[in-house]
Amino acid sequence: MQYGLGFSEALQIYTLLTIGDGLVAQIPSLLLSIAAAIMVTRQNTDEDMGQQVVFQLFDNPKALTITAGILFVMGIVPGMPHFAFLLLAALAGGGAYWMHRKQKVKEETKNLPAEAGGNSNDPAAPPKELSWDDVHPVDVIGLEVGYRLIPLVDKDQGGELLERVKGVRKKLSQDFGFLIPAVHIRDNLELTPNSYRITLMGVAVGEAEIRQIKN
To answer: pTM to 2 decimals?
Structure first.
């Protein structure tokens, strides 16, 4: 009545205005939720927030591909501004394709052999630093037994040698005041069936044969 509109015309206009006002009112809360999510889920690195956001949005082409698809769908919806949405979809799709090609070229260049396209006068690559992976483990104290002595060290066959070795280690550690290294026991088919060998740092220091006496 105030603007001289008919009932149906006023209903149509004020329905659109109500929906639009509701959508506009949700934009600040949406942006606030996105900002809070970024703050909570950000990685604890030396990079600042802006660098991380740019890296996550534009380093992986998947993000721009999904964005291009959503913009394209919105652009073909009747009543939407087709030119703006389709243009943004084309820009996002072009950016995703460019980043995909860039990453593919980077991977191909990385997988090329070192001598490909190189110069013979280029300085050699620096030697790799040594690490513990280059050191083969050696048992401090080792006990090797023949196959007939395996029942002595196998708990399933009633062997008590492991428990007795632990007891001796505990007693010697208490007497000497330092921890005796663990004794690693393994079978050795190179030994005679009833023989055993004691090693220190991989070097054999004693070897003998157990003779079984039958009553």
So the answer is: 0.36
